Amino acid sequence: MGIDLSLIWFVIIVFATLMYIVMDGFDLGIGILFPLIQDEGERDVMVNSVAPVWDGNETWLVLGGAGLFGAFPLAYAVITDALAIPLTLMLIGLIFRGVAFEFRFKATPEHKPFWDKAFLCGSLLATFTQGIVVGAVINGFPVSGRTFSGGALDWLTAFNLFCGIGLVVTYGLLGASWLVMKSEGNLQHRMRVAAKNLLLGLLLAMAVVSIWTPLTHADIAGRWFSLPNLWFFAPVPVLVLVLSFLLWRTLKDTRFHALPFVLTLGLIFLGFSGLGISIWPNIIPPDISLWQAASPPQSQGFMLVGALLIIPVILVYTFWSYYVFRGKVQHGEGYH
Length: 336
Known about the structure:
This protein is globular. The protein contains 14 helices and four strands. It is 75% helix and 3% strand. The protein is mainly α. The strands form two sheets. It has a two-stranded antiparallel sheet with strand order 1-2. The protein has a two-stranded antiparallel ribbon with strand order 3-4.
């Protein structure tokens, strides 16, 4: 039996996507949480908690996009055609977030509120459109031959918009739990309160999506409730409730600082696994599998050599940067 290069590349892309969601999610979440904090010093602490690492987090987005382009060109072509508008808006949001991130440190006092608003709006726009993309992938894409046959606004559905709101809540919870770990005093207390409210919102969003999806997609309902998929899916809601209970307890107990963030990562992983179970083995739902969308084995093999060299390097410098800038962020200290 030969090596299944398509499956290997699918795993790499899924891994890169999950790493991006986790690592860029909490700094987007910090921007989303800006309206809750009016004190300029506390906002500086929020931004300084991710200032040394935020730009490196987006490496995973580049890796996932480049991997999709090279390993599954049909999927890349269909998705970028079907989601041209939300993907463009996402990039605009990321640009605004990045520019505001740097400029607010250099801005004069009268200009700083503008860059704070740009940071907030860019974070919201990028997160909301990423949620729309997730919803659109669950809904699937009409394909005729090897081209997208739908309309430019097919993504504009109630389900996709709700997924956008759900991801805003998710990233907000991730940002709040990150700040519980990285901050102290009044800011940490307010983030504990915010995280509890956002946890309730996330559980509600997950429940709505879990009911809405099988009711409107018979193929997904078949995957969820057929064997052996049922054995993989059944533990997911139970584990979500267990982790949510533990997260609620650790947010109330001020002895725990890092554990709320770890438990939030667990919740996100479970949600991501539910998405994978819903669409597997299709990479363009509802009909095109990852093997049908794959590039020639020679192309995948050539790319794999480079990926096996670069991924360990990314992991090492990511680990090192987080290790160097570990610990609490104090008022008055900053990366810039």
